[in-house]
Amino acid sequence: MKALIVEDEQSIAKLIGVNLKAIGIDYDMANTGNDAITAIENNQYELFVLDRMLPDLSGVQICQYIRNTKKLKNVGILFVTALTSSESIIEGLDAGADDYITKPFDIGILKARVSSLKRRVESHHTSSPINNKNTYNHMGIKVDVDGVKTIIDEKEIKLTVSEFKILCVLISSPGKVFTRKQIVDLIKGENIYVTDRTVDTHVFALRKKLGSKSKVVETVRGIGYRVKSEE
């Protein structure tokens, strides 16, 4: 796997690079947004580590560019930035980032987050298209997307359409944080009546129905929700 580190502070870029190398990830570095785009056009990357504040383009713009580039459909994106407000984190995730850590960061946390993202990216390459889209089996929760069934301990759990759709979104990418806006955008459709304000209510009801598996769905305070990753 190869990563692109987009960071204008050389000392931080090198620190990130050394730790990526330690977990088996090769990397290139770009100091500006335009350098990053040039690198993307001429190389193949599976993972991106982005700063938010760059001399030219913003990290959010780079993130959006990556997500709009067809060949980069299943790559992983991690923001490492000094912007710590909930609004900044939500903006980054809404732009398409998979995860977000703030500076100054703990090396152990950086490695853990990158390793989790690496596994997620690799799973996209190894999973069959049918299993990846239509069935999920994670931490004791089985979801049959086509059959609209949720099974725990060999028993079917009855969910509303909205609850089922939310579970499908979250369980499709364990460890990935989804903002409320992302959840609404991903599940909207016929007979789906969910807004940013009502996501919390639906998740509360979903957790209650999951019973012993309720803690698999985690709240990321001020940001949104995720399904716990299986370490």
Structure report:
The chain has 231 residues and is an alpha/beta fold. It folds into 2 domains: 2-125, Rossmann fold (3-Layer(aba) Sandwich), CATH 3.40.50; 135-227, Winged helix-like DNA-binding domain superfamily/Winged helix DNA-binding domain (Arc Repressor Mutant, subunit A). The protein is 42% helix and 21% strand. The protein has helices at residues 10-22, 33-42, 59-67, 86-94, 107-126, 129-134, 161-171, 180-187, 199-210; strands spanning 2-6, 26-30, 47-50, 76-81, 99-102, 135-138, 141-144, 149-152, 155-157, 178-179, 217-220, 224-227. The strands form 3 sheets. It has a 5-stranded parallel β-sheet with strand order 2-1-3-4-5, with helices on both faces. A 4-stranded antiparallel β-sheet has the order 6-7-8-9. Helix 1 (10-22) links the parallel strand 1 (2-6) and strand 2. Helix 2 packs parallel to helix 3 (59-67) and helix 7 crosses helix 9 (199-210). The longest helix has 20 residues, at 107-126. The protein is elongated and about 55 Å long. Residues 127-132 have low confidence and may be disordered.
Please indicate the count of domains.
2
Uncertain runs: 127-132
Examine the secondary-structure arrangement and name the CATH architecture of the largest domain: 3-Layer(aba) Sandwich
**Elements, N to C (H/E):** EHEHEHEHEHHEEEEHEHHEE
Task: Give the strand tally.
Answer: 12
State the gist of this model:
It is built from nine helices and twelve strands.
